[in-house]
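Why this split exists: single-chain examples teach little about how molecules sit against one another. For that reason, every record in the complexes split bundles all components of an assembly together and asks for one structure covering all of them. Below is a record exactly as it appears in the raw files.
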Amino acid sequence: MEIRAEFWLLLLGVSLVTLLPRVLPLVTLNRMQMPEWMLRFLRHIPVAVMAALLAQSLLTEGEELIPLSVNTNLIAFVPTAAVAFFTRSLLATVIAGIGSMLVIQLFL
Amino acid sequence: MDTAARSSLTELDQPAAGAGFWQGVKDCVPTLLGYLSIGFACGVVGKTAGLSTAEIVLLSIFLYAGSAQFIVAGMIAAGGTVYSIIVTVLFVNIRHLLLSAAISPYFRGFPWWKNVLIGSQLTDETFGVAVNRLSTDWKHRDKWMFGLNITAHINWIAATFAGAYFGAWIPDPDRYGLSFALPAMFIGLLVLQMAHRQQIRTDLAVAGAAVVLFLLAFTVMSVNLAVLTAIMGAACIGMVIEHGNQS
């Protein structure tokens, strides 16, 4: 198990710049009253985050846009979203998603 | 959140008042498969970039951020300097500011060290599950959060380790439909979130705006900055719509 000396510096750096944005708002906003506009902005963050990450995971591969004509994710999206809507269960949705993609990979 | 929305929640959404750590562990289960396959791929990529298994596991323990770990591996393979990698990771992970701020109202009045622990393991997926579950009148929400966070973190460490260790022998983990586990998780979290909030028109507009803004931004910037831009822009649009509805 070799770990290079330079790696420790890298590990410390990337961990710190990731830890700070994760922790600072939780610790500091805890102690002050947030203005009303900021609370309203933050209330929309969950939907905005999930929709943006969904768009990324459906439509892109690395730094490339998947051409629409070959994007099988969009086909799998339909039954998966339907299961999510009707069951309201995260587990059922993930299983339906994997099952849909499996069927698509088998037949397309 | 208002009481009308609260009372209409189904049993599934509303944990028992005494629920704590183990409920958090249970609530993490649906997200495990998605991150198992991504983590496995992340371990394989790390290995091919020249990282040792020990280094990959250390990154999973202390950095603990999927897209950042892929980028670290890619930049190491491309011969990037330590400094340039650190700056890039800062930009990739800056969106955690928004996630952390968005759950902070639920953890007011908790000791600072608990908030440090909760924040240090905050990811897109634990955030997504948490905003569907948290409420300020739930006593053991800190313990629940620990259960959720620790389960997700152990799963991630195990997945990247498996990818680094066994990756060479197992061909293409994305076969068998697993490549869609992650998008499916985001679909589920988005639908649950909207059902939970009962302001479907505003939410649909925000979600639609996020997708359009992401695609527009992605034509001129990297995928990670495009995600950040889409989140900020869509949340602003939500604010404006809400303001219009009130006046």
